[in-house]
Structure formats: structure tokens, C-alpha cells
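Let us practice reading a record.
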Amino acid sequence: MAPFGAGFAVSAVLYHHGGTDKLVLKKYYFLANNADPDFDTWYQLAGFVSMLSYFLLSLRYYNVYKKLMVQVISYADVVMFRWIRNFLLAFLLMLLIRFGFYVAEMFLADSYTNSWWYFLTFAIIFYYIAITGYANSIETKIAFNPNLLSYRPALLLNYHSSSYNTPAETEEAEVIDISTIEGDDAAVSAEVLEWKEKLLQLMQTNKAYEDPELSLAQVAKQLESNPSFISRVVNKGFGINFNDFVNQYRIEAVKEMLNKGEHKRQTLLGIAFECGFNSKATFNRAFKKITGLSPKEWLQQNG
């Protein structure tokens, strides 16, 4: 049944192309003169330019996305889509192979039959992208609309202003310009210093960091402000992004529990979860980044 089905499918495709050519172009085009037009130079170049444009736009979109995530959520590592980096590398490899195929065509007598290596490699990479993409599907709750054609890294962070006590903000979406909140060259204003204290109280007294899905929007709501301003307070006042700011408190809470010997009663991962982390990988990376040691190494030195 399988060979018959495959043969029927191939026959149907050939008939479809041939019939369409005859009806639309009034002549046979598909495999006309025993040559597949898919291999025409203009067609191949158009496909290459299309893939290259997609790659460059995807790369910019991904970089913009990473910049935004560390500014607006405290669990950025979970939604960084690290597999997309691998996808972009795989896609770049596909482009390089395709370019190599163009060059090799000039030296191959029969480019279709002698270039099986190209189609095999292309198929392997294609299936790798499909399988890893399906296996790493993650839904992020942060909506944004970056302008991929602009050099200014401004992002549109969507939120409902009615959820916040923000008299000055009446729009349903706010533009967050990364360039205004990332740099450390601007002077720290008295207003920023004042709001630093409010933010410190929220973290130290209310322990907001214990919420594993704490976001910039939630902090802004609790402080009766807006996300853009709170983001500037964090970046200008503390010199770090929101994700690292929250994780610092989580790590300090973990260290405090370890100093009390809590690791003798429960696992390190259990302690990490209590302090606001939502994955082992995120906890380990944050701990290493902030302390310079892994959790086990820190315990050996301080236990």
C-alpha cells in the first residue's frame, strides 16, 4: 500500500503542475524540455535572498526580544528561547550550504544527481529545526511589537493601564525605549533615588521576589507607578536590569537559608523554589553569575 500511495501522490503532483501550467500559461512549464525551472538561476537567487532576509530579520527580532525580557520579567532565562539561538545557527548553516551549492554547481556536470549531499544535509537540518522547535515550545505572556526596520531599539510593551494606579498613563500600550533605561551615563535624579527606597522596601519587607513569575508590570502596580519609570529606576538606580535585580534578592535569600542549615532538611532545589526561582537551570545560572560559584561550591566554602 505504501509504494502505491507514494506513487499516486507523485503522479497527482505531476498532474497538478502540468495541468496548472497548461491552463494558466497555455503551455507546459514544469519539467519542460526535461529541465526543472526550480533550478533556474533567477529562482535560486530569489530563494537565497528570501532566506537571507528572513535570517537577518529573525536575528534582529531575537536580539530585541532578549533585551526586553531581562528588563520586564524576573524569570527571563526560562523564556529566552535558547533553542532559537541554535535554530538561527542551523539556519545560517543552511544558507552557507546553499551558497556552497551554487559554487559547486559550476564544477558539477550534473548538478541534480551529483549534489545529493546538499539535499541530504538540507533535509537533516530542516528536520532538526522542526523537531527541536516542537520540543521546546514555550508560551511567553509578554506581548511586544518591535520595529525591526528601525535602528532605535524602542519596544511596545502592551498592558492595560486600568490595572495600574497610573494617573499620567492613559494609553493601553507604552513605548519602552531601551536606550533610555540601559545606559549608566545619565545622572541619577533625586526622583530616582526616592523611588529606589520604595523599591527596596518592596523587596526587603514585602519579599516580592518570592513570586516566581514576578514582572515589571506587577512591581509597577504595587508601587502605583508605570513599568517604564520603574525600569529606569532599576537600571539607573541600581545599575542592573530588572531580571538580575530580582535574582540578587533570591540568591541572598537562598544563602541565608543555607547559612541556617536548611540544606540539611531539604534539597537545594526546594530551597531555590521557596526563594522564588522556578527552574533548576535558572537557579544554577543566577547563583553562578552573582556569587561566582555553583551552589555546591559555595556550600563547600561556607558550609
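A brief commentary: Confidence is low (pLDDT under 50) at residues 1-17, 158-173.
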